[in-house]
Records
---
Amino acid sequence: MKKLIASVLVLAMLVSVVSLLPFAATADELEPITLTVFRGDPGDQPAEDNKIYKLIEEKFGVKFQFEFLAGNLDETLGLKIFGQDYPDLFDGGNSADLIISGGALVNLLDYISPEKTPRLWAHIEPQKARLIEKDENGNDVLYIIPNYGLTDGDQIVNEVNGPAFFIQKQVLAWAGYPQIHTLNEYFDLIERFIAENPTDKNGTPYIGFDILCEDWRHFCLINPVQHLMGRPNDGEVLIDVSTNDFHTETFIDKPYAKAYYKKLNEEFQKGLISRDTFVMNYDQYIAQLSSGTVLGMFDQTWDFGNATAALKDAGMDENTYVALGLVYDPEYVDGKVIEEHYVNGTVPNVRRGFGISVTSPYAERIVAMWEEMLSNEWQLLFNWGIEGEDYYVENGRLLMTEEQYNNRNDNTWKLQNRALAFWESSPKKQGWIMDGPYAGNAWDPANQPEIVLGLMNAYDQDFLSHYGFSKFADFVNPPIELAPYGEAWQIDYTPVDVEHTDFLNIQDQRLPELIMCAPEEFDAKWDAFVEEITPSATAFGDYMQKAVLEEAAKVLGNE
Amino acid sequence: MSLAAKKNASGPATGNKSSFFRTLGRQWQLMLMSVPILLYVLLFNYFPMWGWSNAFMDYTNMKNVAKGITPYIGLANFEWLFSRPDFFQAIRNTLAMSVINLVFGTVSSIVLAVLLNEVRNRGFKRTVQTVTYLPHFLSMVIVVSMAQNIFASNGPVNALLMNLGLTKDPIFWLGEGKYFWWLVGVINVWKEVGWNTIIYISAMTAIDPCLYEAAQIDGAGRFNRILHVTLPGIRSTFVILLIMNIGHLLEAGFEIQYLLGSGLTMDWSRTIDIFVLQYGTEKLNIGVATAAGMFKSVVAIVLLLGANFLANRLGEDTLI
């Protein structure tokens, strides 16, 4: 009997505690929550006492628990999809298409409207034709607000951040600061330089031209032709924007591509290209660039940032690179003069950034938080930091001391003082501050004109003065207007995945062979290559033509 | 005496079943102890086989997959696999590298074990053992990175060969397919030889020292003692390991080929695992990936049973 009474008492207590719980949850609207966050790229956990996260917690009652990518992105996402194991904030990195088609994300349009969230709406409104998609039932959907590329004001181009042919500054200086515009001029200059200076001052032989082929970074090998033809980066297709149907074709199997690889073959025979370049991995490539012995390469600026930093640290400014926008000489393209366009109009980073997963109970809270965070005060906090600590203001201009600016490159400092793991994938303001007391300043300190000028060292200033340029972007043409379809490399090609894999594999395999083969074999080998790649190239090209038209129609139709 | 023995022996014959349970009952502690292992095998080895059903499903439409809709498509995944010439190429590469690894690995570790067994200076023996098995603990990423530098055109291997006058121009070790399999073999030996030696050395310590003494008295020199005492002494270990390794012939590894390979050597470096990664796992096409996995398992079982049967026939200890 005693036992029974005890059990009943315990049961009663349990029931009362359980029944209290829901009330406790609804009592305070800003009940503290912890959001689980997945980032589709590797990263470091922020410090416990990070000052910006502390402010977020105070203001929004939100803590974050970050998971960063470790291992293969597609596999990680696949596991999450199969297990329906979603974080609250879900950044699918470069493979967000997977989680979108897997149905992992909520439609943000259910939460965003001009009335409810005026700032977020104003943020996406100018680009909504590109951002809002139709789902299979024909409804408007928006899964991800782009992490980058929704900018205010005139486009800022201080330097080329994307693809280009690069050349060491010392080579241009040696030749008396010439303007280099074509493929022949470029290789001719490197040849002349290397003939007179075969080794650097330590006696290490110079390498004329490097081609990185490792894994996904093989764009250094397979992408240049479209740029030589005068187009910005569309991935593996060349698109003629002057035609009504946005004529889209794979370029690698076309005669104009043959000219480039034949040129590389000639340079290989002359010893400008080392065969080791085709088997080296990314680390070796960066090490080689950092040693200052590589005179030129085709790459994208962000891809070798570590090497540039290493060269600067070592005081080897003359070995850092200038981005050149090369095009084919007329002789390669039936006498046509090609106009160079390496820099594109700002591209909203469509389908990249945080989405909110369907399993998260906090969608409302998250959207409301983003809305508040798009205010100038919060954007300043994320971009510039805390006034007096991380930057100072003089006559309405936002400025940083050298130390304050350098802090921003210090990883430990960043983990303590910036909320990058969260903010990098969140909606953000970029470009120029348009209103408020700081209107006319740049959102990103790295774009603030005073800072850009102040950061340039004496070597670079002197170098540019020989050209009469004020910034390194002056070496290439100003950006062209973004084509209606955006940039074609962003287009999802999952339906032709197998063909696309074949298409890339054949290039990985044959292009290095072509560059290294005996000159008299080149033509026959090229024909064999074209024959081998045609089936997969046709399948991929046809699909891309259709997809580009669809993308373009979306934007043109919505406008 | 003999009668008693007979009576004992006839016991099971009269009531096989009851005696089985009687034995079971008598050994219940042992039985209890084996339960966790049984559960482990069931849970981690047999239960996952349910996943083989994926090989007959269509996983190409992610939207459906997320909703749990994966239609059965019969043998289509297998048909696709076997319609690809590069899948057969991957099988060839896998087998070739496996066999090379098996031969190189076994021979090198037995030779090293025998040599170490003959060393009388304990300090030296320990040092060599430690040094040779340390690379086992290195990540393959590091090992391959080192190999890429060592075998580069201007690396130490080429420098040595050129100084010795064995070649006039540096050899393009990493870029020519014909060297790839052998490079993988050599790298694997370097990484694993010390580790693989351990089991042979332990087998050698189990050899009765009397045998060595007897052989010595019979006038056997050091070489003959190795030939007639040491090697026969480790024969059963060798056979068991061989049978087990034959079961793993289609597991030539993945990391080393993935890291060391490049576009130039793709025809020789692509193993089944890499093929599956490129066309199956990476595209989340679980159907194709599982089909390839199933194919590997079936081949492995056939090879294992075959080797076991052969060993049995040759009068050796066997695994099963």
Note: Residues 16-28 of chain A have pLDDT under 50 and may be disordered.
---
Amino acid sequence: MSGMQLSRDELLNAYRTMRTIRVFEDRVSAEMASGDIPGNTHLYAGQEASAVGVCFNLTSTDSIASTHRGHGHCIAKGCDVDGMMAEIFGKDTGICRGKGGSMHIADLSKGMIGANGIVGGGPPLACGAALTAQILGRDDVAVCFSGDGAINQGTTAESMNLAQIWKLPVIFAVEDNGFGEATAKSFVVAGEITKRAEALGMAHAMVDGVDFFAVHDAAQEAIARARRGEGPTLLHIETPRYYGHFSGDPDNYRTAEEKAAMRLERDCLTVFRRRVLEAKLLNESDLDAVDAEVQELIDGAVKAARAAPQPGLETLTTDVYVRYV
Amino acid sequence: MSVKSYRQALNEALHQEMARDPHVIVIGEDIAGGAGASGQQDAWGGAFGVTKGLLGAFGPARVRDTPISESAFVGAAVGAAATGLRPVAEIMFVDFLGVCFDQIFNQAAKFRYMFGGKAVTPFVLRATFGAGTRSASQHSQALYPIFTHIPGLKVVIPSSPYDAKGLLTQAIRDNDPVIFLENKLLYDTVGEVPDGPYVIPFGEANILREGSDVTIIAFGRMVHIAMDAANALAKEGIDCTVIDPRTTSPLDEDTILESAEETGRVVIVDEANPRCGMAADVSSIIAEKAFGALKAPIMKVTAPHTPVPYAPNLEAAYLPDATRVAAAARAAFTYGK
């Protein structure tokens, strides 16, 4: 079923999740500037349609592996927004009790098997989650989100081959935002990304990552193929990255004009609104109500995170092992 | 109970645990061997024959020959462990961990901690280690100190067939990532091994011999060298205790310290290179916690700070042997007398 045939509630959910990611990331950016968030964050704003379009087709028993730019994937897979914000603030109420931070948010009970501080860390892990499903005879799938940067890691090449020879139910969702850190993709990626899948005999597709419906439909087909036991797919999802690589990145390797044009012309939320309004699937006031609701959710998350206690010092040495001595 | 080789003991543990728990799988290069070829299947049963017969007993879904892609299949085993299986991955030589170390020390080791105690990763990585096979620098290292250094990993180095089976069974049932290292020169050694399953808890040293003069602490195959030295020294009237910690993480500090306090003279035998190795680690623990009891400097018998050489005479000189261990024990015994 095409994304344009989703029910009114489903469409509102998709929009709400994308808006939640956008407001979450814009707010994290603002809070970073206040100096109260420790360390660093890599923001997902601009890429929302990719995470949401893919994860909309998943259930809680499906797995996703994510990246250092993982907040959007976490939200799209159902991680608790309050817990995520508290985690980023390094608080005891965080989803990882303040031990992981922005780059290590995970909730295995939701099938979110981890953001990852290592570029290319996720592909083998996603294959593992898919292997679990295959061996236990479940129809679960695993999605490996990675960036265009990770396409040059050996782990990606190895994992794509492994997935293809074993017909693993895994989808390689390569989010191409044009940059690996501060270096343009054109400078470091040889050839077409989809050709790397083609060389392995793997199904693949180019996807407009600004269009929720395009991502939804391509992911739906790939996920259905995986559930049928027909193996992996690579989705090359082209998407903008609104912020720099990390929160303090001056992003001076892109011109102001380029960045302004990107936000104006390639905004998945604007595109979504236009498409559902033109097709008369939702009306303006429905969408505005979601915007207000999301703003309140994020305000509440920040307020709660700021008020939450730091982790107790006794937790420094706990949870290294299930059981040691 | 019957006499079995170290290899058979490991094979029996794998068979019994795979039969006991359908979540246990084995995964690695040529662990069956012959896949996709026209001849014999299960042709190798692993490069050292440890996984022989598993393919026939449990089938290709649970006994997976892999491409030579250590990052992918070790990482897949880690991901499978985090999502409900109990994979046992095999790396032929511990040296090959160089191409997949990220999946071990950044991923498997850290899930539980960085995910706030919610991840369980029952993953076992088996690998061979050790010099003495004329295999030179990239197939002979003793890298257990590197894994011991990493919080979140457990590290096991069995020295006998009995320990091999009991410790591997424990490793497979354990809920944390375990690095299980087998010295290839031990595969054909034999000993009494119970036929049924049993576990040896981690962090419990084995005292092979008790004597009041010198404490010798040895790891892996070095335990046998230490015993040879201790038996020779007994004829000279020097009585040694020989301790095999069996696991370097967790480490049975109590047993080590108790003996060090009793004898006051300690020799540590470690096949690893000397810098930041187990000999250095254990001697620092003794120096810190049993300083007052020491009657002699702690003696370390290790490989030199060099890669493993190829030429037989150089490799023999590289490895600790009973003569060097006995000399160190004698020096410790006579120090200050």
Note: The mean pLDDT of chain B is 97.
